[in-house]
Amino acid sequence: MTTLTVLATGPLATFQDLGRHGYAHLGVPASGGADRGSLTLANRLVGNDESAATIETTLGGLRIRVEGDVLAVVTGADTSVRHNGVPVGLAATVVLREGDELAVDPPVWGLRNYLAVRGGFDVEPVLGSRSTDTLSGLGPPVLTANVRVRVGRAAGEWPSVQSAPANTEHPRVVVLEVDEGPRADLLHAAADLGSGTWVVGADSNRVGVRIDRAAGSSYPLLTHRENAGELRSEGVAHGSVQVPPSGRPVLFLPDHPVTGGYPVVAVLTDTAADLAAQLVPGSEIRFRRR
């Protein structure tokens, strides 16, 4: 049986797959990987089903040692991946032998990385998912140093490719594409999400990305219409852009609550939701209507 030992986790490391869907009526968030494109790419590169459990890291710092042999890959934020101290490339598979170590450095751009191993991680599923939900506490516990993890045996055919082009574009302003939300009409006529740029706040997490105008910006915050009234709580989706009374929008990520009482004025596209998951505090963003 192949296992790995977590030597260091960085700021946050959790198990993530594609989430636990179908339980919103019970108040259970879907959770799952924040950057689903990077998660599924990692699984494809090692020959797993796209929904296999991976380790999601935040701001790097993950370091593991293997007991046995395994095929591994790291995708996501632009970072250096080191095999026994030697850089091996991002989104490039590497064979780890008995006693080998793999390390994920802090990214030079982006926030989250995904470590996949051939066969997936064999952790106990909760409601059909191996995802750690930081809001409800469901799923495996947050990873800590010295934890041993078993590698599963649920791999498919051997992957036809061993690497994928890494994203080396680091735009100063990240453009997020959105569709109009169901409550866009509740904003004041002069309020425009797409005007000017926004800045990501330090209080962002897997629940949501909180944004504000930059200091000294000439663009206003968003305001609700005077006759909007009080909105009843209603279901909200992954990628929803919700505007509380403060006028500072929140972009919902996978661990978001299943209901909300503030207007959802836009919804991120799937690609934009993955990009939002890579935004670090201080990032500048702009919204563009699809």
Automatic annotation (TrEMBL):
Transmembrane segments: none annotated. The keyword Lipoprotein does not apply. It holds the Pfam family CT_A_B. The keyword Acyltransferase does not apply. Keywords: ATP-binding, Hydrolase, Nucleotide-binding. It comes from the Bacteria. InterPro entries: CT_A_B, Cyclophilin-like_dom_sf, PxpC. Residues 25-290 form the Carboxyltransferase domain. GO terms for molecular function: ATP binding; hydrolase activity. NCBIfam families: urea_amlyse_rel. This is Biotin-dependent carboxyltransferase family protein.
